[in-house]
Specification:
The protein is α+β, with helices and mostly antiparallel strands. The protein contains one helix and five strands, in the order E-E-E-H-E-E. The chain has one domain. The strands form two sheets. A three-stranded antiparallel β-sheet has the order 1-5-4, covered by helices on one side. It is globular. The N and C termini lie far apart (about 40 Å).
Length: about 80
C-alpha cells in the first residue's frame, strides 16, 4: 500500500457562517455568528494556516448564498507580486 504525507492533504480555504454583524454600514468592529460545525471548520483552517503563515486574513463576504449562510475565507498576503 503506497504512503502519502500529510502535505498531500488539500484543505479548502473557505467555510461559512450564519451571520455577519453589523448587518450593514461602516463600523469599527464586526462579528460572525457560527454554529458548532462552522466554528470547528474555521478553527481547523486557522490552525492549518498559522502553521505556515506569519499573518492570516479572515474575510466574511456579505453575499447572499442559496443556503442563507455567508462565505468566510482564510488567506494571507504575500510579497510575491
Amino acid at each position: 500500500m503506497p504512503r502519502r504525507t500529510i502535505r498531500s492533504i488539500r484543505v479548502p480555504t473557505a467555510t461559512s457562517c450564519d451571520a455577519v454583524y453589523p448587518k450593514s454600514g461602516t463600523h469599527t468592529t464586526i462579528g460572525l455568528l457560527l454554529n458548532r460545525e462552522q466554528a470547528i471548520s474555521l478553527a481547523r483552517l486557522l490552525l492549518i494556516a498559522s502553521q505556515d503563515w506569519e499573518q492570516v486574513l479572515v474575510t466574511a463576504w456579505r453575499l447572499d448564498r442559496p443556503d442563507g449562510t455567508f462565505e468566510v475565507t482564510v488567506t494571507t498576503v504575500t510579497d510575491d507580486e
